[in-house]
Amino acid sequence: MSDLNVMTAAEMAATKAAVMDQVPGPEIQGQSPLHHADLDSLAKVGPKQGGVHLREHKLLGHLTLRLNPENDDQLAAAERVLGVALPLQPLTSVENGSYSVRWMSPDEWLILVPGLEAFDVESKFRDEMGGHYSLVNSSGGSTVLELSGPDVVELLKRCTPIDLHPKLFPVGKVVSTVFAKSSAIIRRTGEQRFELVIRRSFSDYIWLWLQETSREFGLVVKV
């Protein structure tokens, strides 16, 4: 075999090391896309009762993974890193503690982890995963809103064309869809609880939309 076709251990290690920690040092304060809305203060002084409750799960790690779902070695590697198997059924999701994985397409998954763990998870993928795959850290580009309460389904009916009946949209289901005049990745996490992954560039618009659309139900901001 030609020496040109042989990759040394050092070269393989250098390839796996091509990853950068995007989390700033402690001297820099992280700010979510809705930092300017000061939701923490609104939670303290705002209404305590209402039909819709909103909470931002800010500064999470967002990792987009793409691989061949028929490659058993890659699936096993992903499970070793995450502690849970990737969901292979369309529009489903799985959880393992503070980790959640959303099926986005036959070869794509959105992985959410605590923000300070994103680099460690990314590094573990580089160490465990072989073959051709893609892992992109897009943590700064999105945020997560949790919507819950007795009127949350009625609220969402005014925001998205998706049928939210429990028989068609059970707990654990996830869709990427139109939301108001923007878009969101919606996951049902309880009978009256949903998570929305929204883009940073539309976060302010969606926050304003939710305030207006929830007027008849009453909006409670939580921390």
From the alpha carbons, calculate the radius of gyration and give it in angstroms: 20 Å
Distance between the termini: 61 Å
Principal-axes shape call: globular
The figure for the number of domains is: 1
Describe this structure in words.
The chain has 223 residues and is an alpha+beta fold. The protein has one domain: Gyrase A, domain 2 (2-Layer Sandwich). The chain has helices at residues 9-16, 39-45, 72-82, 118-128, 152-157, 203-213; strands at 52-57, 61-66, 93-96, 99-105, 108-113, 134-137, 142-148, 174-179, 182-190, 193-199, 219-222. A six-stranded mixed sheet has the order 8-9-10-7-1-11. A hairpin with a 2-residue loop joins strand 8 and strand 9. The termini are far apart.
Brief characterization of the structure:
The protein is an alpha+beta fold and 223 residues long. It has helices at 9-16, 39-45, 72-82, 118-128, 152-157, 203-213, and strands spanning 52-57, 61-66, 93-96, 99-105, 108-113, 134-137, 142-148, 174-179, 182-190, 193-199, 219-222.
Write the layout of secondary structure elements.
Blueprint: H1 9-16, H2 39-45, E1 52-57, E2 61-66, H3 72-82, E3 93-96, E4 99-105, E5 108-113, H4 118-128, E6 134-137, E7 142-148, H5 152-157, E8 174-179, E9 182-190, E10 193-199, H6 203-213, E11 219-222
Parallel strand pairs: 1-11
Antiparallel strand pairs: 1-7, 2-5, 2-6, 3-4, 4-5, 7-10, 8-9, 9-10
Helix pairs in contact: 3-4
